[in-house]
Amino acid sequence: MQSTSHSLAFILCVLLFISCTPRAATVPVPDVLPETMTPETPQETYAGDYDVTVSDTPGGTVTGSLMLMEGGGELSGNFVSGGSTMELKSVSKTDDGLRISFYSTEYQTDVTMNLKGAPGADVLSGMTLGSYATVAKRKM
Q1: Is 68 left (phi over 0), alpha (psi -120 to 50) or beta?
Q2: Within 13 Å of residue 132, how many CA atoms lie on the same side as its CB?
Q3: Pairing assessment for the beta strands 74-81 and 60-71 based on DSSP bridges
Q4: Angle subtended at Cα 124 by Cα 86 and Cα 39, rounded to the nearest 5 degrees
Q5: What is the per-residue pLDDT across 17-69, written as a single tens digit (0 to 9) for each?
Q6: Which residues contact 81 (CB under 8 A, 6 or more apart)?
Q7: Which run of H or E residues covers position 116?
Q8: 123-128 and 48-57: which strand pairing?
Q9: What does the alpha-carbon distance between residue 64 and residue 121 come to, in Å, rounded to a whole number?
């Protein structure tokens, strides 16, 4: 009987020890993270390099490269065509895309491009000088 009472005392001690041992609390995991914990998603931007084609101008189809940079919420850049690099006078966002202007040293005139497309789009399309179909394809 003594061994039974020792065994019973041992089992009670083990049970008491287990019941007093702290356990990790289980916290339900939410399906959606709070706003403060969501990772930042990169903002889509027009910044980047584009191959530009302006079709059917009096001088034929004109091709070039458009480089747009963004800093401080403003866009700036250059247009390169026919061996000339022209600094953009202005780049402004419109309701449906961009309005870009620069002075063309090759044609000695102010040039305005109105391009439609969302920031981050691979292709912007529109008109140059209000008359010539223009496509700007983002370089990959």
Answers
A1: beta
A2: 19
A3: antiparallel
A4: 105
A5: 455 555 555 556 556 555 555 555 556 899 999 999 999 998 899 999 999 99
A6: 52, 62, 63, 64, 65, 104, 106
A7: strand 109-116
A8: unpaired
A9: 19
